[in-house]
Amino acid sequence: MDARQVNAALRKGEAPTPEMLAWFAQGLADGSVSAAQAGAFAMGVCLRGLDEAGRAALTLAMRDSGRVLKWDLDAPVVDKHSTGGVGDCVSLVLAPALACCGVYNPMISGRGLGHTGGTLDKLEAIPGYTTGVDEARFRRVVAEVGCAIVSASADMAPADKRLYAVRDVTGTVESLDLITASILSKKLAAGLEALVLDVKVGTGAFMKSLDEARALAQALVGTANAAGCKTTALITDMDQPLAPALGNALEIDTVMAVLSGQAKGPLYDLSVALGADLLETVGIADGAARLEQAIDGGAAAERFGRMVYALGGPLGFVENWQRFLPEAPVIREIPAPDDGHVAGFDGEALGLVVVGLGGGRQVETDVVDPAVGLSDVLPLGTQVAKGQPLARVHAAREEQADAAVRAVQAAITIGAKPKAAKLVRERIGA
Ligand code: URA
């Protein structure tokens, strides 16, 4: 087999066979497929699509491109994964909350992808937090704390690691097939009993329409259940940022506000909804009440602190998080250009503002600036007067802040009061 054959089949609109896709995944993992070939492959799949058999073959081959974990723990091993959004820091609230509810959550997460933020980049804003740990340490933290959020080790789903980095910088993220294979290769390699997927829909998501999101949710749920992992999906709103902050340290600050009982809102509500669905899958009743109690009573914050410390972060982070998080040197208010209501967000444009500030990557080798981003983003429907701040920009340099102010003003529509959006649009069961 030859990478040119696989890419030529895609170019001509001929569905690559499962054997071809399995060969390609192996080549990604062992380095025999080059970055140029991987980029062409990603674009080919985006443009031409795979059939159901091809999607399943690519997913399983990417899972089997590395090590597949097995657990021997005294409670269900579960996880949640999001298809990606802006201000989406649910994982950081949910993992420690789940750990308080009688399940284990070994969470293998990703970095920023396209305009969306990545859980690993967010956690690395915490000084010392190490996302790349070996398997023995990962297992120890999961067993002792109940949750651990880490990157896939070099030998887990290595095919995804390479393709993910290529897709991030080649405009090839928005593919039902590639998103399915990417998410599920990691999640199936983690040896989970159950999984809940947060499939985002809206301007800040990869899937902009409900039909696209539904098709992705069905592909994910079907492929995962066929591979033996009990999986459900919630299709959730991404027409506005989930949290009022976008950017790595700024999102950690928002998470800590929720875990310490200082804030509620959509981030809290969605964490509970996803967690309750997952707990129900493994037969644990009253999931919503249990999760609320874990968050409101401080137990989830305590678990988060233990996880941070066990993975190299500071002792006492939870009590004093603001002291540990980096701050950008330039902080500027973004004035509303008119009177009216916050009527709409271009979520992708907002995400790209953060990438442009240095909070994400333009090329694979970029180093992320943890301090930059947006905070105090007003929610949809808020009434504003001209000049009132719509948000704050946190930048490394004055000229970057100037550009971000203009871009955010262009990404937020001021107009008539919009209809309130439902946070959870649909549920897709097995
Ligand atoms: N999350 C992933 O891990 N992969 C994708 O392709 C999209 C979201």
TrEMBL record:
Q: Which UniProt keywords apply?
A: Glycosyltransferase, Transferase
Question: Could you state a single Gene Ontology molecular function term?
Answer: thymidine phosphorylase activity
What pathway annotation does it carry? Pyrimidine metabolism; dTMP biosynthesis via salvage pathway; dTMP from thymine: step 1/2
Q: Which domain of life does the protein's organism represent?
A: Bacteria
Pfam families registered for this protein in UniProt: Glycos_trans_3N (PF02885), Glycos_transf_3 (PF00591), PYNP_C (PF07831)
Catalysed reactions listed for this entry: thymidine + phosphate = 2-deoxy-alpha-D-ribose 1-phosphate + thymine
| UniProt keyword Glycosyltransferase present | yes
Domain spans labelled Pyrimidine nucleoside phosphorylase C-terminal: 341-415
Q: What class of enzyme is it?
A: transferase
Enzyme Commission numbers on file: 2.4.2.4
May I ask which residue range the UniProt record assigns to the signal sequence?
Answer: none
Family, per entry: Belongs to the thymidine/pyrimidine-nucleoside phosphorylase family.
Q: How does it assemble?
A: Homodimer.
Purpose: The enzymes which catalyze the reversible phosphorolysis of pyrimidine nucleosides are involved in the degradation of these compounds and in their utilization as carbon and energy sources, or in the rescue of pyrimidine bases for nucleotide synthesis.
Protein name per the record: Thymidine phosphorylase
The organism named in the record is Thalassococcus arenae
Lineage runs: Bacteria, Pseudomonadati, Pseudomonadota, Alphaproteobacteria, Rhodobacterales
